[in-house]
Amino acid sequence: MEKQRTIFIAYDGKWDKNRYIEHRVKTITIEEEITHIKLKEAICGRIGLEKSVPIMMTFDMKMEISRGMTIEDDKDVAEYMNLMKNNPIFATSTIIVEREENQVLVMCPVIVETDANEASVAASSQGSSRKTESNGEKEDANRLCINKNKEIPKFSGQKRKNDKRPLLLNAAENVCFDLSSAQQIIRAVDGVDDVEVGMVFESKKLIKLCMSMIAMEGSFQFKTQRSDGMNFWLKCDQEDCTWLMKARSLGETKMFKITKYDKVHKCSVDIVKSDHKQATSSVISEFIKPKLLDPKVQYGINNIIQDVKQTFGVNMSYEKAWRSRVEALDDIRGSSEDSFRLLPHYLHALKNQNPGTITRIEKDEHDRFKYMFVAYSALITGWKYCRPLIVVDGTFLKGKYKGTLFVACAKDGNNGIFPLAFGVGDWENNLSWEWFMSRLKETFGNRNEVLCIVSDRHQSIERAIKLVFKETTFHGVCTFHFKQNIKARFKKAGAGELFESAARAYRKEDFDYFMAKLGELSPKIREYVLEEDPRRWARCFYPCRRYNAQTSNIAESMNSALKKARELHIVSMLELLREKLQTWFVERTKAANEFDSIHDSSNHTTSSKIMTSNENKFCF
Hints:
The protein is an alpha+beta fold. A seven-stranded mixed sheet has the order 20-21-24-23-22-25-26, sandwiched between helices. Helix content is 37%, strand content 22%.
C-alpha cells in the first residue's frame, strides 16, 4: 500500500499582496505518488466543484515574497511531495485553489451613463456580436448577464434630480456587462505615450505614475484635487491653467477609467525647474527599472541623474537618485530580509537539483543568520583531478548588511582556475575563517600528498589553517600582498622589486644576492622581510610544490568576476554565481570535446599514413 499524506486546501479567499486571506479550509488525504490530474480531481471533489472546472493550484511556500509555486504538472506535484517529506517547514503545507478565469469573463469594466433610475456597467471583451435565441427573445451575445434576468437592474441608491453622472451598482445587485466595445487594461506605464478618455488602468497608483511621467516630460506640475475610493482628479498646480484629468473607479474593483482629460495648458511649460513635484523616488524608480533588470549592467547613481536630466529636463539630488535606485532594486529583487528568509529554501532546491552538493547554514543564539557555505557537486567531483593546491581569499559584499564572501579555488591540470567552494560571513575574523576552513576540510578531505594553501598574510587565515588542517598542510604567503605591505610601510623606491626578485629566485645563491642588495638599501626592510619564514614566500625554500602559485591571483580573479554579484541580495548572488559556474563548465566541456575530436582525427590521419607507408614498402 502506498504512503499517504494529509494536506490543507485553502479556497474561496482573496489575495492581500502575497498573502491569501479570508479563505475556507478543508483537509484531504492523498497518495504520495499521485499524478497532477488525480490531485486536481480529488481537490475538486473535496470542495464541491465539477471535475471539468478549470482550477489553478498554488503551493503556499510561506515566504510572503511571492504567491508560491504553481502546481501545473506531474513534476511540480512530485517536487511538492518531496518538500513535504524532507523539509519540516512544509510538513503542514497548504494548496491554494482558485478557479481559473474564463476568457469570456476576463473583461475591462467601463461606466455607461444612464437615466436617473438605472445604471449599467459596460465591459470590454473579445466576444463576437452574434445573436442567440432564449425563451423566444433575441439576446445580444455581446451583452452578458451574471444572473438569469434579461433586464438591466435598477439602481438602489439615492440620486439627485437631473444628475447625469454615471452610476455604479452595489455589489449585491445584479450586474450586466456590455461586451460590444473592446478595450485594453493598462497594466504598466511602458508603451503609454499619452492618455485618452476611455482608457482603463489597473489601479489608481498606475494612473498617477503615468501622469507623473507625462508631467515631467511636459515640464509642468499637477496637484491632486480629489482622491477617494470612487474618484481620482488631478489639476495643474497653476490656478489659471485648464489642464485637468478625472478618473472613476469601476464598481468595487481597483480599476479606474479616464472619464475626462483636458490636455490644453495655459501656463508656461518652458521653465526647467531645479526639482519637480512629481519626480518622487517612487516615480523615478519605475523609470529606471528596465535598466536595472540585468545585474551585469553597470548603472549607477550618476547615470540615473544624467538620464532623468536628459529625458525629463529635471535636476535631482544624489540622495533622491540613490533612494530611487534602492526602491527599484527592492521591487525587482525583493528586500535583503526576504532574501535571507528565502535562503534555506533556495539551498534545499539547489541540493535537490544538484545531488551531492554540500550546503551549510550557521545561526546565532537569536536564530539569526551567521555563516553560509556551499560547494557544488561538480566542483567536489572535479577536485580529485586538480593539483593539491588551494588558494583562499575574502572580499567584502556591498548589500544592505555588508558581510564577506569567502572563496576557495584550485588549479586544474591545464593551469586553469577551478572554483571549489564559497562562503558568506560577517567579516574576516578568527571565528569566520575557522568555520569556513572546517567546512572546507569536511567537504574535500585530505589528499595523499602534501596540500598547499596560499593566501595573503591575514592572521585569522594563518590561525584557522593551523587549527583545522594542523601539520598535514603547508601555508604559503602571497608574494604580491607581501610586496604591497613593504611598499606601504617603508615607501622606499626599489624595495618591492628587490623583494620580488628574491622571492622568485630558483637558487639560494640568487636569493642571498637580492637579499643583500635589499639590506644595503634598507637594513630595516631586510629585517622586516625575514621576520616571515622564507619557506612561506621564497621559491628556493618551498618545502612542497606550489605549482607556480606565487600569489593568490586566482582567487582575486574569481572575486573580480563576481564583482556585480556582490551587490545583490544573498540568494540572487548565489544564483548568479551558479549561472556563471554553469556557463564556464559548459564552455570548458565544449573546448575539451573539440580537443578530443581534433586529437582523434590527428591520430587517425597519422595511423593511415603509417599503414599506407607500410603497404607501399612491403607490397611487391
